[in-house]
Amino acid sequence: MIFDCDGVLVDSEAISNEVLAQMLTREGLPTTLSEARRAYQGLLLTDIRDQAEAKLARPLPPDWLAEYERVRAEAFRRDLRPVAGAAEAVRRVKAAGLKVCVASQGALEKTRMTLGLTGLRGLFSSHALFSAHDVPRPKPDPALFQHAAATMNTEPSACVVIEDTPSGIVAAVAAGMRAIGYAADSDEHALRSAGAEIIRSLDEIPGRLIAGERLR
């Protein structure tokens, strides 16, 4: 089972996008939290910067991304929590004999930090963390999930992906994997349109998955 990190294991999306909205607004691009999530959630930071610069019609300061990461890290240390049921879901999946890993759009350093802050780091081995920075193209390209499956020595058709963004679902479907959309804090219609089966709580994962039941 391949877990996305942000919004699936750690409750980071509101924190990240609130910092982003504030920093973009300060640069002259008024942005609310909901607008930031709608426009930028699931993108690489460099893509966020490029899109913001295109809207502003000028470059952001050279140290803008580094400052964003610094402020976001401070907010994580203060406010970050695990997604409800994340630890128990992972433990039960592992107890059933399934391999588990994390495949995130973010850098590995960020994944290690957020899993550590939320007490989830010990649930995943050091070789079971994957980043879009390590493959040629990020989600929605399937490269990240294909890389994770190959490293975990598992055929794509035997993999299940848990994602909370349409781009992640598109990537999973393109990789030939079963795609489950976690819709507790995401656009359920967009996840379905991208090809996801839907769950609204991580508590739903182990029993249904282990029983082989399709999630609807």
Structural account:
Helix 1 (13-26) packs antiparallel against helix 4. The two termini are 18 Å apart. The protein has helices at 13-26, 33-40, 45-56, 64-79, 86-95, 108-117, 143-151, 166-174, 188-194, 205-210; strands spanning 2-3, 101-104, 129-131, 160-163, 178-182, 197-199. It is globular, with a radius of gyration of 17 Å. The mean pLDDT is 94. The chain has 216 residues and is α/β, with parallel strands linked by helices. It is built from ten helices and six strands; from the N terminus they run E-H-H-H-H-H-E-H-E-H-E-H-E-H-E-H. It has two domains: 2-11 and 81-210, Rossmann fold (3-Layer(aba) Sandwich); 13-79, DNA polymerase, domain 1 (Orthogonal Bundle), CATH 1.10.150. Strands 3-2-1-4-5-6 form a six-stranded parallel β-sheet, sandwiched between helices.
Summary, kept brief:
The protein is α/β, with parallel strands linked by helices and 216 residues long. 47% of the residues lie in helices and 10% in strands. It has a six-stranded parallel β-sheet, sandwiched between helices.
List keywords for this structure.
216 residues, alpha/beta, Rossmann fold, DNA polymerase, domain 1, 2 domains, 10 helices, globular
- Predict the CATH topology of the largest domain: Rossmann fold
H-E string: EHHHHHEHEHEHEHEH
What is the number of domains? 2
User: What is the percent of helical residues?
Assistant: 40-55%
Radius of gyration: 17 Å
CATH class of the largest domain: Alpha Beta
CATH-derived architecture of the largest domain: 3-Layer(aba) Sandwich
Helices, by number, come to: 10
Strand order of the largest sheet: 3-2-1-4-5-6
* Count of distinct strands: 6
Give the rounded overall mean pLDDT. 94
Strand % is 5-15%
Instruction: Give the biggest beta sheet.
Output: 6 strands, parallel
What structural class is derived from the secondary structure elements? alpha/beta
Can you say what the CATH homologous superfamily of the largest domain is? Answer: HAD superfamily/HAD-like
Q: Which of globular, elongated, flat, extended, rod-shaped describes the shape?
A: globular
